[in-house]
Amino acid sequence: MRINSRVVKEPGTKVEPERDRIEVRGRPIPGRSALRYLMMHKPVGFLTTLHDPEGRRTVRELMPPGPRMYPVGRLDADTSGLLLFTNDGELAHRLMHPRYGVMKTYRVVVDRVPDEGVIRRMRSGVQIEPGEMTAPAEVRMLGVRDGRAALEVKVHEGRYRQVRRMCEGLGLTVRRLQRVGYGPLRLARLPKGASRSLTAVEIRRLKATAARPGGTGPVLRPRGVRPGSRPSGVARPGRLAQRPARPGFARAARPVGRPRRNPAQAARRTGPKRRTH
Ligand code: URA
């Protein structure tokens, strides 16, 4: 046997499968390919798949060259925002499994200003199909403009078109939907269509979040945001964001109610029927 061209005879010799080249009787042993983690800002109009038999545009076109990675969950074609890719099957499984309740954060613009009753119903759970209720969500008003409202909605489930169906179930038409956070990760200023590798800290935090059932790990500070300040649009529960979520949207005059602290745990207590995609 050779390790990096050096003949090795000692049993139990340690190797690093991602780095060392191992040959047995002149034949290379395929190593474990390095694990990769990527964040993409998916634009509207792209399908979350690596291949579309109908030839529509897919996120594959936007992926950088390199080892094959797979999307973690999906965003609708008409939804933009943070989409993760990895070849780490174990982590992808945990991130998508309802047991781990990883929080996904959305900004949604709806066609009218919902009153407190509607926001409360969104928080406590919405019937999106006969007999199908969503788990409690964190919802807060970000701002109002021209009769439209911008909301931040945090859900830990991954039901098909969940945020759109929650809004529709309450008589709100969605004009724009963007995922801005996935667990501790934030989209921040990543340009539309661009992608970047996660940093070592982000990978560690993501793994930590997915390691705890019902886990809502710490939110990471996006690049360029000073320690001590809050990322754009992220406020403590029940507090206003420090600045408007989007240019042009006036900040809400006051927060509407107080979201539950850990919707994943609340959901387990009430035990909603779950159907994930
Ligand atoms: N909820 C939706 O309605 N669509 C998405 O793409 C993600 C969450």
Question: Measured on Cα atoms, how large is the radius of gyration?
Answer: 22 Å
The DSSP helix count reads: 5
Number of domains: 2
CATH class of the largest domain: Alpha Beta
What is the mean predicted local confidence, pLDDT?
Answer: 82
Based on Cα principal axes, name the global outline.
elongated
Structural class: alpha+beta
- How widely separated are the two ends? 46 Å
Task: Give the proportion of residues in helices.
Answer: 10-25%
Fold-level CATH name of the largest domain = Pseudouridine synthase
Bound molecules: uracil
Which spans of ≥5 residues are poorly predicted at pLDDT below 50? 224-247, 253-261, 265-277
Biggest beta-sheet profile? 10 strands, mixed
CATH 2nd-level architecture of the largest domain: 2-Layer Sandwich
Q: How big a fraction of the residues is strand?
A: 15-25%
Count every beta strand, where a strand is a DSSP E run of 2 or more residues: 16
N-to-C series of helices and strands: EEEEEEEHEHEEEEHEEEHEH
